[in-house]
Amino acid sequence: MLERIDRLSVVRTVVLALAIGVLVVAADILTGEEVSFSVFYVIPTALVAWRLGRASALGAAVLAALAWFVVELLGDREYSQPLIPYWNGIVRLAFFGIIAALIVTIRDALREQSENARVDTLTGLLNRRGFDERAQVELERAQRSKRPMTVATFDIDHFKQLNDTAGHAAGDEVLRQVGLSMHAALRRVDVIGRLGGDEFAMLLPETNDEHAHLVIERLHERLMKITADSRIGFSVGAVTFQRPPHSIDLALGRADQLMYAAKGDARGGIRYAIDTPSASVPPEPRHATSSSSASTA
Fold first, then answer.
1. Cα angle 20-114-127, degrees, rounded to a multiple of 5
2. Residue 148 half-sphere exposure, CB side, CA atoms within 13 Å?
3. How many helices (H) and strands (E) does the chain have?
4. 128: which residues sit within 8 A by CB, 6+ positions away?
5. Sign of the CA dihedral 126, 127, 131, 134?
6. How many Å apart are CA 184 and CA 161, to the nearest integer?
7. What is the H or E stretch that residue 240 is in?
8. Around Cβ 181, how many Cβ atoms within 10 Å?
9. What angle do CA 224, 125, 209 make, to 5 degrees?
């Protein structure tokens, strides 16, 4: 239910809240004083608070309190003091405002928790779950637009030796520096994540092979500056899809094959490929190191 509310547009949210409010007021008037509808006045305010935020929720709270006040006036209810209806109206406004504030606070806390569940705390990158979700969104967008996209994976060569010799604190620092390098080298629209251990992935939307070569080699140069330890390197596999693949797993699998092929070289490096939909068997990609010009298949 909450996911459906989150997908509502602003206009639909306002219309739905007003429609519910009108129904509640009409039912309250028709049933008279014997049947209470007090709890139902909260629904429009809660809906607006969850979808539109604190400021809009305050406006909804004012309208709900005002509607309840008008219903009481139309009911010709008798009070011992003439100021009692106005006092009741103020109390109800405060009640609706508190409810709205609580709902917005709970919503923000849940969203933050949900976001944190998709972020790797060490590097600040997306974790596997977050990467898959964001990448799926970009894949569906690429399938609609028929635009190219590039998927790449890389890991740290000899990372286990680094942990064994220098300690896990040194390994963690390298991972943090990788996260900073990826944020610095890539665009905000790019999907970047740590898939686990020392393996990372990136999806570059609307990126052809020429641009991908430049971006990935620039990133590789940044990565190689992270540590002075000559035993540490980075093996990268990257595939540019001229047409979007059927699934993210397929794209990552292609990139992984190239990454492991790069590991077979003495100093690691980068391997590229261009996915050609018309070819039944893609050609063997050629190797490119960070110091050489980009090569494609």
1. 150
2. 15
3. 10, 6
4. 193, 194, 195, 196
5. negative
6. 27
7. strand 233-241
8. 21
9. 60
Query: Does pLDDT of 97 surpass 80?
Result: yes
pLDDT at 269: 76
Q: Which residue ranges form the domains of the chain, and what is each CATH number? A: 2-116 (no CATH), 128-288 (3.30.70.270)
Q: Tens digit of pLDDT for each residue in 138-179?
A: 999 999 988 999 999 999 888 888 888 888 898 899 999 999
- Reduce the DSSP state of residue 81 to 3 states and report it: coil
Distances (CA, A) of 53 to 17, 45, 47, 168: 14, 10, 10, 43
Which has more confidence, 286 or 267? 267
SS3 136: helix
**Edge-first strand listing for the sheet containing 269-275:** 191-196, 199-205, 149-157, 233-241, 269-275, 287-288
Q: Please write the tens of the pLDDT for every residue from 14-38.
A: 999 999 999 999 998 888 777 778 8
State whether residue 154 is helix, strand or coil.
strand
Q: E strands along 141-184, which residues?
A: 149-157
Determine the Cα–Cα distance for residues 159 and 166; give it in Å rounded to an integer: 10
Query: Which pairs count as long-range contacts for 114-122, CB under 8 Å and 24+ apart, including other chains?
Result: 120/179, 120/193, 120/194, 122/172, 122/175, 122/176, 122/179, 122/194
| Torsion-angle region of 167 (φ positive above 0: left; ψ -120 to 50: alpha; else: beta) | left
For the residues of 243-286, what is the DSSP string, one character each?
S--S-HHHHHHHHHHHHHHHHTSTT-EEEEEEE-TT-SSPPPPP
Token code pair at residue 258: 């190239």
The model carries a pTM of 0.63
Note whether 287 and 295 are within 8 A (CB): yes
Strand partners, 235: 155, 269
Q: Which of 169, 259, 183 is nearest to 219 (CA)?
A: 183
